[in-house]
Specification:
Number of domains: 1
Helix content: 40-55%
Largest sheet: 6 strands, mixed
Bound molecules: ligand LH6CIYWY
Strand content: 5-15%
Strand order of the largest sheet: 4-5-6-7-9-11
Number of strands: 11
CATH class: Alpha Beta
CATH superfamily: 2-enoyl-CoA Hydratase, Chain A, domain 1
CATH architecture: Alpha-Beta Complex
CATH topology: 2-enoyl-CoA Hydratase, Chain A, domain 1
Order of helices and strands: HHEEHEEEHEHEEHEEHHHEHHHH
């Protein structure tokens, strides 16, 4: 975790090395030093081809895989953005999980970056949690891989050397909530009137499943034992003001505000998020991220280790068992029936909304 902070290796060397290892069909956003903040989507080139081009140019940062996430960096402030971009709901598939982990590592390898904002290109949904279709009649090969990719996202986010700020523009149920809780700071949108309040929380029990121990413990560490015990049992989804009162989020923002951060956000936000430059959640997220970026990184990372290293170690130790438990649980006949019923309800609701 701290080795990246102290690493004298230039970011471009690390990135080229990583590029060679990436899947040949991946697409990347390339950022070249010396140019103004600049992105180019190259979808038809192989990784090896891109690596060759990269060696000829001073590479500053590149990301992201298949644009399931979009990223950008603002080296002047030390802040980056990593936004999930999997319509319609940013539900977490194996590929989205892998893209989040890969992009986070690429951002971490830029020594000028100290903070990252985890965001969504969907202005009303942060992430709908696990892609439930991954859980229904899964293949024996894909299911453990899928769960491993989720564990890895948790480990990467929770143990990142970067300060992580979640910009929660909309709904964040279940594993969507886990992403937010694994960050250092959470800012949630207050919603657009009582009718359209976003919610956040672990609603697994309402689906007939239980949050795995490491996810449940994350809630316990965030809001305390008794409130977490109740919220986990009931599958509570907190609207913004209740989430703030319970400590699930650190800040709730509704008011539109103009700020000098707007200009920085224009440079910082990837194209898919340009409509969010005057969004109050994004402004606050940037300000918070910039604030963290000013703290001496070694001290900031060391303090993060104090609170997080034990649970990360535990996660590593129990990871294999957790995967086995998950696969056994999900493939159980009763659980499969519950999940199918839940998806059917979700589809009916979608149809009713559209008609
Ligand atoms: C003792 C036990 C110990 C240990 C246990 C061991 C292991 C643990 C085992 C299991 C743990 C499993 C952990 C699970 C964590 C999860 O994340 S489960 C997923 C939970 N997610 C949800 O329940 C969210 C469902 N979605 C919603 O509630 C709404 O969609 C949402 C509020 C997010 C947004 O609402 P709205 O804006 O109205 O949008 P729509 O509902 O219309 O949705 C838009 C389209 O997106 C599709 N969709 C939504 N969510 C998902 C999803 N999670 N997966 C796949 N697809 C999703 C939805 O169907 C719509 O599609 P359509 O446009 O109709 O095609």
């Amino acid at each position: 975790m701290s080795s990246t902070v102290d690493s004298p290796i230039s970011s471009s060397k690390i990135q080229i090395h990583q590029l060679d290892r990436l899947a040949p069909r991946s697409a990347f956003l390339l950022f070249y030093a010396g140019h103004p903040p600049h992105q180019t989507m190259i979808s038809s080139l192989s990784a090896r081809h891109i690596a060759r081009i990269a060696r000829q140019q001073p590479l500053r940062l590149f990301s992201s895989q298949d644009s399931l996430v979009v990223t950008n960096v603002h080296e002047e402030s030390g802040v980056a953005v990593l936004a999930m971009n999997r319509p319609p709901a940013n539900s977490l598939s194996l590929e989205l999980n892998e893209a989040i982990s890969t992009s986070l590592k690429q951002i971490e390898s830029n020594p000028k970056i100290q903070s990252v904002i985890l965001a969504s290109s969907n202005p009303t949904i942060f992430s709908a949690g696990l892609d439930i279709t991954e859980l229904i009649s899964p293949s024996d090969e894909r299911l453990p891989k899928f769960w491993n990719s989720l564990q890895q996202v948790y480990i990467d986010l929770y143990g990142s050397r970067l300060a992580t700020v979640a910009a929660i523009q909309g709904h964040a149920p279940a594993a969507g909530c886990m992403l937010a809780l694994a960050c250092d700071y959470r800012i949630m949108h207050g919603g657009h009137g009582e009718e359209h309040l976003p919610t956040i929380g672990f609603n697994e029990t309402q689906l007939g499943i239980a949050a795995p121990p490491w996810m449940g413990q994350l809630m316990v560490r965030t809001i305390g034992f008794r409130p977490a015990e109740r919220a986990l049992a009931l599958g509570t989804l907190f609207p913004p003001s209740e989430a703030l009162n319970a400590g699930v989020v650190d800040d709730v923002i509704t008011e539109q505000s103009s700020s000098e951060s707007n200009e920085v956000l224009k440079a910082l936000l990837p194209e898919a998020l340009q409509s969010q430059t005057s969004n109050p959640v994004m402004i606050k997220a940037y300000e918070e991220a910039a604030c963290y970026a000013k703290i001496p990184p070694q001290a900031r990372v060391a303090s993060k280790l104090v609170t997080r290293s034990e649970s990360l170690k535990e996660m590593q130790m129990t990871r294999e068992d957790d995967t086995q438990h998950f696969c056994g649980f999900i493939t159980h006949e009763v659980v499969q029936k519950n999940l199918m019923k839940y998806v059917e309800k979700m589809k009916q609701r979608g149809k009713a909304k559209k008609s």
